[in-house]
């Protein structure tokens, strides 16, 4: 019996040395109840699975940061507090003949617990250009709202009346990328209450970015008499994404047929290269900037002379300018007739000049003009701390 136990121990040690203890699978977290940003006192329910290996039976471990907090398929967190905010992970583990095998940890699920009165719920994933973005301004205890305002980077972008807490921004562009917050106003017993949410980031991406061409003349992966052209771009279409075709050009002449590959191998001939990415289904076409390789012969441009207008011909004889000689003064006709006698200068009454008025400079105005439809973010009381309550720590429901 001792020899058999020793043999099994040595066999286990040998197998564990040749087989890894980490399986090539990754656990996945699914949020069953709640949201990524909740009020203190609310509940969140998470579920863990290993979808890449549904034949095996896995035990799921739960972590907050590096701390192990629970073991089971679902993690239920109720009566959440601000201090419970953080990143939650799960991991699968199962027992085998060679010992415990663990999966890779899941992508973290970040839970943000807000102790204030308002939360702006934004999309958890980047929004694509041209889509409609929906945001929700939640207020604790769900009062009947009178007015809602939406801000981007501290500037008002939308205002609406009524109880609906939802905002819908259509035809999103890259300019809509920014930090958003909302302000809600409601009335209780003839008193007006107004709160503002903590800012939340929104990312906006183009479906197809402008390509950037890279010329690699000395690529160790291709023959020495060839070079590689690489067309870099990002394609962010939703799954299932339609195909994108890539074209390469030299001196505005196409080098290859349409291909899904982002690179091509060509002879290292001097010229002006560029690439094009095209998604026919979506009607998207993006060109890269031209990139010169080697000595590129510039095409001589023929500069045509600019025609000058001819001088216009006169339609008649030139008019003689009037004489600038002043007319003789009244009563001195005899003096003009007899040039040999001295002429006495006429006497004029003295001219009285009006006193010069001193003009005072106008003081420069420094009035600040507020742009239309752009209301500065108001100064409000910070209510981002824990919502006052006397509940205990959150509990884990198995």
From TrEMBL:
<dbReference type="GO" id="GO:0004888">
    <property type="term" value="F:transmembrane signaling receptor activity"/>
</dbReference>
<dbReference type="InterPro" id="IPR013783">
    <property type="entry name" value="Ig-like_fold"/>
</dbReference>
<keyword id="KW-1015">Disulfide bond</keyword>
<dbReference type="GO" id="GO:0006955">
    <property type="term" value="P:immune response"/>
</dbReference>
<dbReference type="InterPro" id="IPR007110">
    <property type="entry name" value="Ig-like_dom"/>
</dbReference>
<dbReference type="GO" id="GO:0007166">
    <property type="term" value="P:cell surface receptor signaling pathway"/>
</dbReference>
<keyword id="KW-0732">Signal</keyword>
<dbReference type="InterPro" id="IPR003599">
    <property type="entry name" value="Ig_sub"/>
</dbReference>
<feature type="compositionally biased region" description="Polar residues">
    <location>
        <begin position="354"/>
        <end position="376"/>
    </location>
</feature>
<protein>
    <recommendedName>
        <fullName>Ig-like domain-containing protein</fullName>
    </recommendedName>
</protein>
<feature type="region of interest" description="Disordered">
    <location>
        <begin position="302"/>
        <end position="398"/>
    </location>
</feature>
<dbReference type="GO" id="GO:0009897">
    <property type="term" value="C:external side of plasma membrane"/>
</dbReference>
<dbReference type="InterPro" id="IPR036179">
    <property type="entry name" value="Ig-like_dom_sf"/>
</dbReference>
<feature type="domain" description="Ig-like">
    <location>
        <begin position="20"/>
        <end position="91"/>
    </location>
</feature>
<feature type="compositionally biased region" description="Polar residues">
    <location>
        <begin position="333"/>
        <end position="342"/>
    </location>
</feature>
<feature type="compositionally biased region" description="Acidic residues">
    <location>
        <begin position="389"/>
        <end position="398"/>
    </location>
</feature>
<feature type="signal peptide">
    <location>
        <begin position="1"/>
        <end position="16"/>
    </location>
</feature>
<dbReference type="Pfam" id="PF13895">
    <property type="entry name" value="Ig_2"/>
</dbReference>
<feature type="compositionally biased region" description="Pro residues">
    <location>
        <begin position="306"/>
        <end position="329"/>
    </location>
</feature>
<dbReference type="InterPro" id="IPR050488">
    <property type="entry name" value="Ig_Fc_receptor"/>
</dbReference>
<feature type="domain" description="Ig-like">
    <location>
        <begin position="108"/>
        <end position="197"/>
    </location>
</feature>
């Amino acid at each position: 019996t001792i020899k058999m136990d020793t043999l099994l121990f040595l066999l286990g040690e040998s197998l564990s040395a040749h087989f890894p203890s980490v399986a090539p699978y990754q656990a996945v977290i699914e949020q069953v109840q709640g949201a990524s940003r909740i009020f203190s006192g609310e509940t969140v329910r998470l579920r863990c699975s290993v979808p890449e290996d549904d034949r095996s039976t896995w035990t799921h471990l739960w972590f907050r940061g590096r701390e192990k907090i629970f073991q089971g398929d679902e993690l239920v967190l109720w009566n959440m507090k601000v201090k419970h905010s953080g990143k939650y992970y799960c991991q699968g583990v199962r027992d085998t003949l060679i010992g415990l095998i663990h999966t890779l940890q899941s992508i973290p699920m970040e839970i943000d617990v807000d102790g204030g009165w308002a939360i702006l719920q934004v999309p958890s994933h980047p929004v694509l250009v041209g889509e409609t973005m929906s945001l929700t301004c939640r207020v604790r205890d769900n009062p009947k709202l009178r007015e809602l305002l939406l801000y981007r980077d501290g500037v008002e972008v939308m205002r609406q009346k009524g109880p609906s807490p939802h905002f819908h921004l259509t035809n999103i562009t890259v300019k809509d990328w920014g930090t958003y917050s909302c302000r809600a106003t409601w009335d209780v017993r003839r008193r007006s209450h107004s709160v503002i949410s903590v800012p939340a980031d929104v990312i906006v991406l183009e479906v197809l970015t402008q390509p950037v061409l890279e010329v690699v003349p000395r690529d160790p992966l291709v023959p020495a008499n060839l070079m590689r052209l690489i067309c870099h771009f990002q394609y962010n279409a939703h799954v299932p994404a339609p195909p994108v075709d890539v074209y390469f050009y030299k001196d505005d002449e196409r080098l290859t047929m349409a291909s899904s590959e982002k690179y091509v191998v060509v002879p290292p001939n001097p010229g002006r290269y560029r690439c094009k990415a095209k998604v026919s289904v979506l009607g998207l076409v993006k060109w890269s900037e031209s990139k010169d390789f080697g000595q590129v012969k510039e095409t001589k441009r023929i500069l045509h002379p600019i025609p000058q207008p001819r001088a216009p011909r006169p339609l008649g004889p030139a008019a003689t300018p009037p004489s600038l000689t002043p007319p003789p003064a009244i009563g001195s006709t005899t003096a003009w007739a007899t040039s040999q006698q001295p002429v006495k200068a006429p006497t004029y009454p003295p001219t009285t000049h009006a006193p010069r008025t001193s003009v005072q400079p106008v003081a420069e105005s420094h009035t600040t003009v507020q742009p239309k439809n752009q209301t500065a973010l108001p100064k409000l009381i910070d209510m981002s701390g824990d919502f006052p309550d006397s509940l205990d720590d959150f509990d884990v429901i198995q």
